[in-house]
Design goal:
Helix content: 40-55%
Biased composition (Polar residues): 1-12
Number of helices: 5
Strand content: under 5%
Biased composition (Basic and acidic residues): 15-28
Number of strands: 0
Structural class: mainly alpha
Region (Disordered): 1-37
Shape: elongated
Oligomer: single chain
Distance between the termini: 42 Å
């Protein structure tokens, strides 16, 4: 029995173009604004607690805004 959808095991020409790496500058979400401790905590996948906020403040003090970039894919 035939289906209207293409075989998912075979990449289509349109899909083949999507199989390329994303440039590094497009992977980072920081928009040039200040990075808050809350941003760092959330990017690390942690809950916002006083202990985690203190950890994030120390990390930002040591690494600057790059701390967020290091946590994001």
């Amino acid at each position: 029995m035939s289906t209207s959808q293409p075989d998912a095991s075979q990449p289509s020409e349109a899909r083949a173009g999507d199989d390329r790496a994303t440039p590094d500058d497009l992977l980072h979400a920081r928009t040039g604004t200040d990075v808050s401790p809350e941003d760092v905590v959330l990017a690390a996948g942690r809950d916002i607690t006083p202990k985690n906020l203190e950890w994030a403040r120390r990390k930002l003090a040591e690494e600057g805004p790059a701390a967020l970039d290091k946590l994001l894919p």
